[in-house]
Amino acid sequence: MGVIVQDAEARILEANPAALRLLDMSLEDLREQSTRRQRWHTTDEAGQPLSPERQPAFLALQSGQVCTAILGVTSVAGKQLWLKFTAIPTPPTTAGDRPGRVYSVFEDVTESQRLQLEFQRSEGRYKALVAATSQYVWTNSPEGEMHGEQPDWAALTGQTREQYQGYGWAEAIHPDDQQATVERWQAAVATRGHFEAEHRVFTRSGYRSFSVRGMPLLDAQGALIEWVGLHTDITPLREAQAALEALNVTLEARAIERSLAYDDLARFNSLLLGSAGEGILGLDREGRARFANPAAADLLGYSVEELQGQPMHALIHARLADGTPYPEDECPVSQLLRRTAEPGTDETESRRIEGEVFWRKDGTAIPVEYVVTALPPSTQDGRGEENGGAVLIFQDVTAAQAARAALEQAIVELERSNRELEQFAYVSSHDLQEPLRTVGSYAELLGRRYGGQLDARADQYLKFMQDAVARMRQLINDLLSFSRIGRNEVVMKPVQLEQVMQDVRASFETVLGESGAELTWTELPTVLGNESQLGQLMSNLVSNALKFRQTDAAPRITLHSRLDEGQVHLTVSDNGIGIAPEFQERVFGLFQRLHRRDEYEGTGLGLAICRKIVQGHGGEIWLESEAGKGTTVHLRLRLATDADTATSQTGTGQNADGHTETNR
Fold first, then answer.
1. What CATH number is attached to the domain comprising 629?
2. Looking at 447-544, which runs of residues are DSSP E strands?
3. pLDDT number for residue 35
4. Domain membership flag for residue 123
């Protein structure tokens, strides 16, 4: 079905590929059709020239009603087509106005029109033949009554002679047709004129439709001798006509339905394009704008009408951000259009471009990101290329660039602040050692020199002072350890966890023996990390398990490992006092203690240091526990690969950010 869209002035706006193929025109030729350059001559169904004012689209715009007509079109080369047009106007936007558009839906009915003309000629020949030959022939008396033997009538109707005598023949006619037939027959008899009628006759196979002709037979003196009649079976003709009428009704309904669906689709597409926030441009194969949505026009400072038909590269993309010319052959959009126009191209291609600018009507540049999707030409039945071009979707990224710049600046400031805080923590912790050593030294001297010489309270005060100095020293050391982690770049190498645990066992040999504790592990893999920090991590976990043990059971510490998608999942389980669920995240914070110092010593930095080490290794740490039933700490670390081992042997490694460095 061909579809042509025209505006209120009957100017052609758009046509679908089927319309251009049927008319053998491009869209530009169709729009520029004029009497000077006319390629088709249009006639009505009778073959008379048809002026534009009498064509369906013009009549639909004038009347606001659907108009249908069959038009004959003949090209200069002599090609002739018959097209059935249905012009459907759109409702006016304001009462009393003319329709804003008209959709002309048409189809090629050349073959059916040819058959209709042949049928009309055949029908004429058939009637002439029937007039000269006998089919179902009958005779009546001058008074219009049937007498004597009527073999054809008897064979047709099955009536006997007694049944059809006189006006008995009328009993074989369908009851709905009897009265009209008899009245017309009597009128012909009275005037001695020709009798013609159509009626249904009951035959041996049921009711069938007949065309009837009766003619008076006169003698030389003009006296009426008898009537001679002829019944011609036209049942197939009437059935064909009924089928054709039903088909026409169906086709018209389908055309209207498809036109309405096309109209709905056009409205939906218009709404979609109008509501989109991004600019959307439809380009033909030469890069000219075929359509533009309101957002595109607004972003570029043009109206939609100003963009229509304009070469987009020359209009908005001809210069780079610094104002220098942007050659069209270097433009990604133009390159894509050229590639899709090459013979044999039948796939779409999309490209996303960043870091370019489009130029507005006022001469200002806007930074954009855009996606251009090519629509390669298609061929149908070898008749040539159709469609083609590209769709360009773009957005103004001015705000996004500003936000990105602000974010990058914030990151720089945050990194600087973190470095300053780490430096401050390190320096502060380091500088606190000097006065603490002085206080500790003098407290120790006082205890040696005056211990036992003063009263019991003075000795107690000295002990409090020495304990406080020891706790302060431990707190500063832990704070120094925490500040050192991540302060300097750490080179990552393959580390054998088996060796790490052997070293940890050796450092806790005395405590393990005194407490009767068991420290066991299964076969451990090699991970990618820093051996010193991993040793500190495992030491802290073992130390916690030994510290927070049950009073009535020897500590049992078990280490298991399993591989999980390129990572090592470690679990460190103990049978200690456990941690209530509401405190399981809190214990990873700085200086977080769940018990009094007189119950369990420590600074509250152990698990905070563990988390910082694991996160510095790109891993995860969490725990599962229940009060009174022990604790299981979960760790995820990177599994060392053969490539990591090879890199380590050549003297290079990765720092905590994943960058490769040479060891010095």
1. 3.30.565.10
2. 493-496, 518-521, 526-529
3. 36
4. no
In a domain, 356, yes or no: yes
Report which of 241, 165, 228, 171 is spatially closest to residue 199, judged by C-alpha positions: 171
C-alpha 657/C-alpha 617 separation (Å) is 9
Same domain, residue pair 518 and 640? yes
Distance between alpha carbon 103 and the CA centroid of its chain, in Å? 29
Domain-embedded: residue 179: yes
Instruction: Measure Cα distances from 617 to 70, 306, 496, 497, 636 in Å.
Output: 81, 59, 15, 14, 9
Residue 481: band (very low, low, confident or very high) from pLDDT cuts 50, 70, 90 = low
Cα separation values, 229 from 145, 234, 635, 660, Å: 12, 16, 111, 112
Instruction: Read off the pLDDT of residues 156-192 as tens digits, 9 standing for 90 and up.
Output: 899 999 999 999 999 999 999 999 999 999 999 999 9
Asked whether the beta carbons of 577 and 550 are under 8 A apart, the reply is: yes
* Whether residue 504 sits in one domain with residue 461: no
Count of structural domains, the chain: 5
What is residue 664's DSSP assignment?
-
Rounded to an integer, the average pLDDT of 535-562 is 85
Q: 455 versus 392: which is more confidently predicted?
A: 392
- Cα separation, 622 vs 607, whole angstroms: 10
- Look at residue 358 in the predicted model and tell me its pLDDT: 94
Q: Give the CATH number of the domain where residue 445 resides.
A: 1.10.287.130
Side-chain-side CA neighbours of residue 27 (13 Å): 18
> Domain for residue 299, yes or no?
yes
Instruction: Name every residue whose Cβ is closer than 8 Å to that of residue 547 and which is 6 or more positions away in sequence.
Output: 600, 601, 602
Residue 616 contacts residue 502 (beta carbons within 8 Å): no
Q: How far is CA 113 from CA 104, 372, 627, in A?
A: 20, 46, 94
Tell me the CATH number at 385. 3.30.450.20
- Among 482, 515, 546, residue at a domain's last position: 482
The answer to which of 295-309, 357-371, 522-536 has the lowest mean pLDDT is 522-536
Distance CA 591, CA 604 (A): 4
Q: Are residues 299 and 210 located together in one domain of the fold?
A: no
Q: Which residues share a beta bridge with 569?
A: 562, 636
Question: What is the domain range of residue 266?
Answer: 2-117+248-274
pLDDT exceeds cutoff 80 at 444: no
Residue 663: pLDDT over 50: no
End-to-end CA distance of the chain: give it in Å, rounded: 78
**Angstrom distance (rounded) from CA 395 to CA 414:** 31
Residues 405-425 have pLDDT tens digits of: 899 899 888 888 777 766 766
What's the confidence (pLDDT) of residue 382?
45
